[in-house]
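Below is a filled-in request sheet from our internal design queue. Each sheet records the structural input a requester submitted and the sequence that came back. We keep these sheets so that new team members can see what a complete request looks like end to end.

REQUESTER: design group, bay 2
PRIORITY: normal
MODE: inverse folding
CHAIN LENGTH: 170
BACKBONE (tokenized):
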């Protein structure tokens, strides 16, 4: 099951479950349905009145939050930041004004641009870049947006990135 075949496979999987079978939704990275395929499948199973059981797995958002040093409750999870700069700026501006920690997934190819938006709006605002969580090259960089921007302008970011933005008044 992937984002390209999910709609086509759902009726087959529902029929399999109705006939007494079971289906396991497993992700090769991260938690299924949380910025990964599977949300439509789970919605269809629930909508059909069938049983769904969730067994917790790795979650970059919660792993990053737990080790970020930022307030952990409450928090806001926004999934992947938008590709378009205007929409991304709107989401980041809102995050800078929240009373809770904001968590986003970001592409390594857009991280520098995203940090530039944050540094321009609030250069001293605390942010955390968590990269390659639970893997060999795991990295946490913490500090003001302007300092992290300078760091990643000289060191090309790689891998899966989770970006955390401190509350307006941590």
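RETURNED SEQUENCE:
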């Amino acid at each position: 099951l992937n984002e390209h075949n999910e709609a086509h496979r759902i009726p087959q999987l529902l029929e399999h479950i109705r006939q007494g079978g079971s289906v396991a939704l497993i992700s090769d990275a991260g938690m299924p349905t949380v910025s990964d395929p599977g949300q439509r499948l789970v919605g269809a199973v629930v909508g059909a009145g069938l049983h769904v059981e969730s067994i917790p797995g790795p979650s970059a958002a919660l792993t990053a939050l737990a080790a970020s040093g930022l307030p952990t409750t409450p928090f806001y999870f926004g999934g992947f930041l938008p590709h378009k700069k205007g929409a991304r700026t709107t989401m980041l501006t809102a995050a800078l004004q929240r009373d809770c920690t904001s968590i986003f997934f970001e592409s390594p190819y857009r991280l520098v641009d995203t940090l530039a938006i944050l540094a321009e709006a609030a250069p001293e605002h605390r942010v955390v870049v968590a990269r390659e969580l639970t893997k060999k090259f795991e990295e946490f960089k913490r500090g003001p947006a302007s300092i992290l921007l300078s760091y990643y302008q000289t060191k090309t970011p790689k891998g899966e990135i989770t970006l955390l933005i401190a509350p307006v008044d941590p």
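SHEET NOTES:
- The chain has six helices and five strands.
- Helices lie at 6-18, 39-47, 60-68, 85-97, 111-121, 145-154.
FILED BY: M.R.
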